[in-house]
Amino acid sequence: MPRGRPARKNTPTPPVTERGAKTRARLVSAAREVFETEGFINARIASIARAAKVAYGTFYSHFPSKEAIFMEVASELFEEMFREDPAAEHQDPAKSPRERLERSNRIYYENYKRNAALMAIIEQVEQIDPDFRELRNGHRRINAARSSAAIEHWQEQGLVSTKIDPWIAAFAIASMVDRTLTLQFVVGEDIDDNEVLHTLNELTIGALGIA
Amino acid sequence: MPRGRPARKNTPTPPVTERGAKTRARLVSAAREVFETEGFINARIASIARAAKVAYGTFYSHFPSKEAIFMEVASELFEEMFREDPAAEHQDPAKSPRERLERSNRIYYENYKRNAALMAIIEQVEQIDPDFRELRNGHRRINAARSSAAIEHWQEQGLVSTKIDPWIAAFAIASMVDRTLTLQFVVGEDIDDNEVLHTLNELTIGALGIA
Amino acid sequence: MPRGRPARKNTPTPPVTERGAKTRARLVSAAREVFETEGFINARIASIARAAKVAYGTFYSHFPSKEAIFMEVASELFEEMFREDPAAEHQDPAKSPRERLERSNRIYYENYKRNAALMAIIEQVEQIDPDFRELRNGHRRINAARSSAAIEHWQEQGLVSTKIDPWIAAFAIASMVDRTLTLQFVVGEDIDDNEVLHTLNELTIGALGIA
Amino acid sequence: MPRGRPARKNTPTPPVTERGAKTRARLVSAAREVFETEGFINARIASIARAAKVAYGTFYSHFPSKEAIFMEVASELFEEMFREDPAAEHQDPAKSPRERLERSNRIYYENYKRNAALMAIIEQVEQIDPDFRELRNGHRRINAARSSAAIEHWQEQGLVSTKIDPWIAAFAIASMVDRTLTLQFVVGEDIDDNEVLHTLNELTIGALGIA
DNA sequence: CATGAATGAGTTTTCATTCAT
DNA sequence: GATGAATGAAAACTCATTCAT
């Protein structure tokens, strides 16, 4: 949302020297802090530069805009949150759907809790910046595809109700979990953590019609 | 002295003449249109005034700020959306939980669809304006209380699983429905309308463990 | 979001480069000219920026407000006006009270005359801006303390009437001189300069009961 | 200082009905209160109308502007403050200069104290509105003429030093008294009331060289 | 006379982005 | 690459004054 002269936006090239890479990393880390405390709209490039202890102009040697650095910050987060579980135990086909769902919910729950401040800002930016919304929807689709595949698989095995559309169900259940955690951690509806997770598990399992 | 600097935001008094009331109503209606087409952030007071065919300053003799008129627009919408169903058929205790849930989902679905443009903006403002967020959370709590009471009632009758916490379930299921419709109508995941509603019904019913 | 609304007045940091320092100095000097010709209330930031040949926004990268730059302009003036006389002859204890008072009055008179235009604005701002009033009252107290000490000293030596309270007398006599010069130079009661100074001297000396 | 469309300012005619006269009086009285609490610049026509319990527009049936009603408020005050003392004792030529000055100072002191809030605003407006400044300077000259005549008279009688110019002395001493009381009652230099008056008396008497 | 709604020019302040060093 | 000063378009908000009833 440029106010001054129309933007030309030289997209900076990736850093080549080691010093450049370090500065860039400092900026990303500073940006995360600033976004978490100020929100996206109120975050100032000046604050980010200050927090990173670099000059104002240095920001623009590394990122073309506030949106761009936010994308970077969010991407790092997404990578952490939706990383295939290294052990991938909860994906182990040997385990029952119930076990796998509970495992999956717990991991998401813990990730969400740890990153609640930033998740709140992500909600905000999603409502404001179309490019970022697209990025997030992409992640959503990837996750939905994964869940959808699992649901279909279970349907084929007769473990899950066939009345539901796997793709829609994947979206809906992810929405339920995500949104409930938002309410829990961001809005601050004060409910017992374990109770929330337990109820989410039951609802998820029931929704899918798992025996 | 300076004019552009807000000293203490004058809250205008409600109009006493019919003429004043009409102008105010024109402003609210114009504001809704502008918000729907421009979004909250990009909506300009100037545009609202222009759309209502009044002078710039007239806006400020009726509302103290963009936030304030948005509250009004949203309140009107909420009133429409969460109005007790006049016939209240879906609340009829004679009907089965399944029938009542399906009815309730359908009504919300239709309301949401009809007001999708504004609902999208509401999501946006909720992320931006704490006062508005509080307003919306109040609505959420009222609805959750209503649903929660029904769930509890059904649990007592043995119609619904007692493994779930009614209050959390109320929030979670409302989140699921609401968010899925957002994805459907706002984000534009292109899915068949009937399929969405049908799947939401099944998920809802399953989640509650209704036989 | 909105740009026109002051969120938290950024207090800019002092310039670190010579270029910045020069621009800042140009602004202060331009501001003085604008204040002198337009008065404080009618002075526009735009005029100051134009007079300093910088862009509008440049003003705000050096000062947070019109009040702030005025403080700077006035501080420079006060420093000049109330600087200890370099030669400090009029403070020379060897001189008689009469000589010292006459000397002191003359210096103040000449300073006032030279800076009459700005002094008029200072009177104006003092009535309008509480922060500035505090600044000026601070100066008044410092000067009163100095005069008061001298009066007390003379009282101890039997040179000045002991019927008067030194502190109140210091304020009152300073008021008399200051205000009379305002009437003379600002309001423009057209009286002969030498006559004014001479009468002020006599009044001052008589008021203190100096033999 | 019109902001909107250039002023045409129909100067309202004096009220002819009794109702009109009452409304007008209510406005003047309300204006005084508002000016005292808000100052001139921050006083809003709206506040004055509200305090007088009349409609906004009614103000303009009686006064063409904020300046105009302030003139009225201030004129009432001046009339009270500089009214010839009904008993005119302090003017009694039989009394000594010292007695007359002390009496005069005391009366001014008490008037000032009683009206300190409004006096402060008068200082403010004097710095802002040239018309009002002229009004006040007129009052000053009238008073100075009166004092000047007395001083001259005393000089002829050999009671007062002839080294001083009566006209300048009249202004200067009035300034001293006035300004000291401003500092005392408005700025709030916390000094004992009796001490101030006593010292002012001594300074005044000494300044004039009264034996 | 009283009412109160309508008017709109004028000013401040913000801050993303550019650019000379 | 880093620095930090300069830029200026954009928008909100105020309130004295007018005017139709």
What does this structure look like?
The structure is a homotetramer of 211-residue chains. The termini of chain A are far apart. Helix content of chain A is 70%, strand content 0%. In chain A, helix 1 (18-42) packs across helix 2 (45-51), helix 2 packs across helix 3 (56-62) and helix 7 (130-156) crosses helix 8 (166-187). The longest helix of chain A has 27 residues, at 130-156. Chain A contains nine helices and no strands. The first copy, chain A, has two domains: 18-70, Homeodomain-like (Arc Repressor Mutant, subunit A, Orthogonal Bundle), CATH 1.10.10; 82-207, Tetracycline Repressor, domain 2. By secondary structure, the first copy, chain A, is an all-alpha fold. Chains in contact: A-B, A-C, B-C, B-D, C-D. The B-D interface holds B 1, 3, 7, 57 and D 3-4, 41-42. Chain A binds a DNA duplex (21 and 21 nucleotides) through residues 1-10, 15-17, 19-20, 23, 44-46, 54-58, 60-62, 64-66. Chains A, B, C, D: One of its GO terms (molecular function) is transcription cis-regulatory region binding. Chains A, B, C, D: Residues 21-81 form the HTH tetR-type domain. Chains A, B, C, D: Residues 44-63 bind DNA. Chains A, B, C, D: It comes from Antricoccus suffuscus. Chains A, B, C, D: This is TetR family transcriptional regulator.
In short:
The structure is a homotetramer of 211-residue chains. The first copy, chain A, is mainly α.
| CA-atom Rg of chain A in angstroms | 20 Å
Q: Which class of the largest domain in chain A in CATH terms?
A: Mainly Alpha
Low-confidence stretches of chain A: 1-8
- The count of domains of chain A is 2
What can be said about the biggest beta sheet of chain A?
A: none
Quote the CATH topology of the largest domain in chain A. Answer: Tetracycline Repressor, domain 2
Query: What's the architecture of the largest domain in chain A, going by CATH?
Result: Orthogonal Bundle
Count helical runs of chain A. Answer: 9
Protein name (chains A, B, C, D): TetR family transcriptional regulator
InterPro entries (chains A, B, C, D): Homeodomain-like_sf, HTH-type_TetR-like_transc_reg, HTH_TetR, Tet_transcr_reg_TetR-rel_C_sf
Keywords (chains A, B, C, D): DNA-binding, Transcription, Transcription regulation
GO molecular function (chains A, B, C, D): DNA-binding transcription factor activity; transcription cis-regulatory region binding
